[in-house]
Amino acid sequence: MKLPVGVKEITRDFYPDSMTCDGCSGDLTPMKTKKYTRIEYQPARVVVFNDTHHECRCNNINCSLRQIKRKPVDRYLDWRRTIGSTLINEFAIQKHYEHIPVHRNWFKLLVAGHNISRGALNRLVNDQAKKFKGIANAITNHVISGPTIHLDETFIKCVHPKEGKKRGKPSQATFWVMTRNESRFNPHAPLAASFYYSPTRKGEVAEELLSSGSVTAMHCDGHPLYNRFKVKLIVQHCFAHVRRKFERAVDAQGSPFAKNIVRTIRTIYDLERTFVGSDSEERAAKRQRHIRPVLEVIKRDLENAQSADGLLEQAIKYTLSRWDHLCRFIWDGRLEMDNNLVENAIRGLALTRRNSLFIQNEDAGESWAIWYTLIETCKLNRVDPRAYIGWITDQLNLTRGKIDPALLVPWLCPVGKYTL
Predict the structure, then answer these.
(1) What is the pLDDT of residues 354-385, one digit of tens each?
(2) Which one in 4, 129, 131, 321 has a CA-CA gap of 20 to 30 Å to 394?
(3) Residue 40: helix, strand or coil by DSSP?
C-alpha cells in the first residue's frame, strides 16, 4: 500500500507473552516474522500502524516439545483489512450521528494525501454494520418484548433496488421505526429504538415484526395504514399531531376557537406530567379523574363548532374522525398521549437523508438501519455513541466475536454515560 510522504507511522513488535518454553523451560529464539499494515484513525489525524508479529521457537535440541509461539492477532474485526475499525467507526459516526456524508471525509483524506477509494470507504462502513447486526437484533427483541411500542415510518430513495418490478431502477424505500418507552410508569425497562429497512411501504412488514413479539398496544399517527393491520392491537393515536393542526390554523387564520383548543391540550399535557412515576393502574385512575372531563369538553366544542373552514375545518374533521383512538390512553396507563418519542428518533435519519439524498442499494439500507438502531438507542439511554461503538468494537475483538450480543446493548455500556 502506497503511503503519502510525511505520514506518521508507528512500528511495533510483538513477542509471545512468555519467552520460556513450556517443555524444557529454555529460552525461545525468534524464528520468523509476519508483518501487518493497517490505517487507523486518531482524532484529527490518520496514523499508520506497521505491526510485526514474531514467531519464536525453542532451540533446545534436547527438548521433546520444541515449542513454537506467536502472539495471536487481536484485531478480529480488521482481519485482512488495511483500513482499521477506528477509522471506519469514525466515518460511520460522523455520517449517521453528526450527519457528515462519507464523501466529505473522503475529501479530507484526499487533501491529506490519502487517496482511498470513496466507494471502498462506503462499503467498509456498510460491512462494519454487519458486524454489529446481532446487537441490533438484540435491541429489536427488547423493543418488541414490551407491552407497548411507538411506531412510525419514513422514506428514502433507493437508486439500485435488487428485487421487485423496479429492480435496477430508482424507487422509494421505507424505514420502519419502533421505540419502547415505559419510563413514566416502569423505570426498570430501558428505552430503546429499532430501525428496519424495507424496499416497500407494505404494512405486512411491520405486522410481521410485531407478530414475533408480545406487543399488545401501539402508538402511531393517524395514517389509515395502521388501521388496516391484521394484528389485533390497541391503537393510540397522537395528540401532538392534533395540536399541530390547530396551531397551523391559528397561524393561518388567527382563529380564537383554535387558540382555545391549543390552550386546552396544553393543559392536558401539564396534568399528564404530574402523573409521572405512578404505576400504570394509578395513572389510568388519575387520568379518568382529571383528564377525562377536559377531553369531554374538547369533544363537545368540536362537535358544536360552526362556520369552520380551511385549516380549522380540516383540524376538526381530523380530530373527530380519530377521537376514540386518541382517547385510549385514558383507560390504559401503559399508553402515552403522543408518539413524540419515535418522531424524535427519526430526526437523525432525516438529517442524514437530506445530506445524502439517497441510498445506493438495499445493503446500504440495512446498514443504515443497524447504525441508527445502535445510535438512537444510545441517545435514549444517554450514552455517547462514539464511546459506545468503540466499546463494542473492543469487546468483539477481545472475544473474537464469541460473546452474547445481548450483553453489548447500550444500556449495559460502562463508558460514555452523560447527564443533561
Answers:
(1) 888 788 888 899 999 999 999 999 999 999 99
(2) 4
(3) strand
Percent of the chain scoring above 70 in pLDDT: 97
pLDDT tens sequence across 227-254: 778 778 899 999 999 999 999 999 998 8
Q: How would you label 363-389 residue by residue, b for 16+ Cβ within 10 Å and e otherwise? A: bbbbbbbbbbbbbbbbbbbebbbbebb
Q: Classify 94 as helix, strand or coil.
A: helix
> What's the predicted TM-score (pTM) here?
0.87
Query: Which are the contacts of 307, defined by CB distance < 8 A and separation ≥ 6?
Result: none
| Rounded Cα gap, residues 132 and 52, in angstroms | 28
pLDDT category at 2 given cuts 50, 70, 90 is: confident
Selection from 187, 184, 182, 155 nearest residue 171 by Cα: 155
CB-count burial class (<10 Å; 0-12, 13-18, 19+) for 232: exposed
